[in-house]
Amino acid sequence: MNQSAPVNVAVGRASPGALLELLKPITWFPPMWAFLCGWVSAGPGTGISGWSLLAGIALTGPLVCGASQVVNDWYDRDVDALNEPHRPIPSGRVPGNVALWFAMVWTLLAQSWALMLGPWVAAATFIGLLLAWAYSAPPLRLKLNGWWGNSAVALSYEGLAWITGAAIVLGGDLPPAPILIIALLYSVGAHGIMTLNDFKSVEGDLQMGIRSLPAQLGRERAAKVACVFMLLPQLVVVALLLQWQLAPYAAAVTAVVVAQCLAMKRLLSDPKQLAPWYNATGVSLYVLGMMSAAVGLGGWFA
Hints:
- By secondary structure, the protein is mainly α.
- The protein has 13 helices and no strands.
- It has helices spanning 16-23, 29-41, 50-75, 77-83, 98-115, 119-136, 146-169, 177-197, 202-208, 213-217, 219-243, 247-269, 271-301.
- It is flat, with a radius of gyration of 20 Å.
- The relative contact order is 0.13.
C-alpha cells in the first residue's frame, strides 16, 4: 500500500482537542519516567532548579514523544483509515496536510527547547527526533521490521531520555560512563517491552506487511525473545552495581528481576492471552528496577 498517498484532501482547521489527541498524552509516561531516572542517577548536581526539572519533563514527554506520535499517525494514515477510521486524520478532524505541518513545527519546537538546556541535551534530542522520523517515514520506515523499529523506540524512550535527565543535572554536560552504560542496558531491555506491545496487532501487521517480531516469529517465539531481551540487561545491571559496591541497590534490582521471572513463566504459558497482563505487571517491575539503579548511581555520585 502506498503510505504517502493522502487519505483525505479536505482543507480547514483542526481543533485543539484533535491536535492534542494526535500527541497521545498516554504515551508520554515511559520517556518521562526514564528522564526522572536519569535526573536521579546524576546525583544532586549544582544550581538545579525546579524549572529545569519541569523543562526536561516537558521536553521528553509532550515535545519529543508527542512529535513522534504525530509523525507516526501521519505516515500511518492509510492503515488507520482501514483499521481505525475514527482517529483524527482519517476521520477528517485533522484535515489536509495539517498533521504533517504540525509534526514539523512540533519537531522544531522540541529541538529549539532542547537547545536551551545544554549541548548534550540538544544532541540527545536531535538523535531522538531523527529516530522518530526514521521509524515512521519513508524511505527507512524502521517500524516495518521489528528488530530495527523496536530498537529505535527503545533507545529514544529509555536511553536518550535517561541521558537527557542526567545531562540537565550536570549543566548540559555529557554524563559519565556508568550512567551511559546503565541507560544503554535499560534501552536494550526496553526492546523486549516493545515486542510485547506488538502482540495486540499481529493480525493487522500480517495483512499490512509489517514485520513485527510476533508477526515474524510467531507469538510463542517472540515472547521468549522479549523475555531474553528484558532479563539479560538487568542481570548485567546487577553485576555492575555489585562491582561498584552498591549492593543494596543490586539486591533491589535482583528482587524485581526474580518477580519478573515468575511473571514471565506465566506469560510463556499463553503469550497471546497474557501479553496485556504482563505489560501491566512485569513492565511495572521493570521500571521500578530502573529507578532502583538510578537511586544507587545518584548516591554514588553525590
